[in-house]
């Protein structure tokens, strides 16, 4: 197993960081890896916002479900799907561009997330941990104002970086689902009730069905039916109005 494969298999989210700054050279290297990621037609439909202002970090920490570790991270990057630059370039050269559509948005989000994953993998290779923050999708009005996002710029994800504490390095990486449940050959395979139960029981190492059912109910309330999930749906619906 080569070192790249080893690091991809071992990488895990880090939410507690040492009081150790990330060297500027390492930061620039991480950013260079991000912008060298694959991109649709090499359009690089993204913008990376490097948040260095502590006041903005603190506000993001609150807006992203009051997660205090966000404000404590040594590096904080917001990866935005950005079709604004292409739209403006077309407009400034008199091409009379059509309105930016949902297809453009999705491609821009894909570009930005691929760049983010490059940054995450590069950071891990340097001993720097990270954590994706999907809650950046909530509170559209406040996030747009805070980061001064114009139309056709979408905050795909927020990633926080820092050196992991010993506890974070030593804790077990959560088990992933087995390949047999995640990989389908040639076409999508829909799972019935029993197959879904088997899949989740295997992943969570449950001993019996009761454990599975109790876990699923708790997960439903904590995630799917939570207030933050409902706010995220509302917020994304507002973002989509720019593209519809």
Write a structural description.
- This protein is an alpha+beta fold and 244 residues long.
- It has a domain at 3-171: NADH Oxidase.
- It has twelve helices and four strands.
- The chain has a four-stranded antiparallel beta sheet with strand order 1-2-4-3.
- α2 packs across α6 (102-125) and α3 (54-63) packs antiparallel against α7.
- The protein is globular and about 65 Å long.
- 24% of the residues are buried.
- The mean pLDDT is 97.
Topology record:
Blueprint: H1 3-10, H2 24-35, E1 46-50, H3 54-63, H4 68-72, E2 75-82, H5 84-92, H6 102-125, E3 129-133, H7 140-147, E4 153-162, H8 166-170, H9 179-182, H10 193-204, H11 209-224, H12 227-240
In summary, what is this structure?
The protein has 12 helices and 4 strands, in the order ααβααβααβαβααααα. Helices cover 52% and strands 11% of the residues.
Question: Could you report the average pLDDT, rounded to the nearest whole number?
Answer: 97
Major β-sheet profile:
4 strands, antiparallel
Residue share in helix: 40-55%
Oligomer: single chain
Low-confidence stretches: none
Helix- and strand-based class? Answer: alpha+beta
- What percent strand? 5-15%
CATH superfamily of one domain: NADH Oxidase
Number of helices: 12
Distance from N terminus to C terminus (CA atoms, Å) equals: 47 Å
Task: Indicate the CATH architecture of one domain.
Answer: 3-Layer(aba) Sandwich
Shape: globular
What is the CATH domain class of one domain? Alpha Beta
Number of beta-strand segments: 4
H/E element order: HHEHHEHHEHEHHHHH
C-alpha-based Rg, rounded:
20 Å
Strand order of the largest sheet: 1-2-4-3
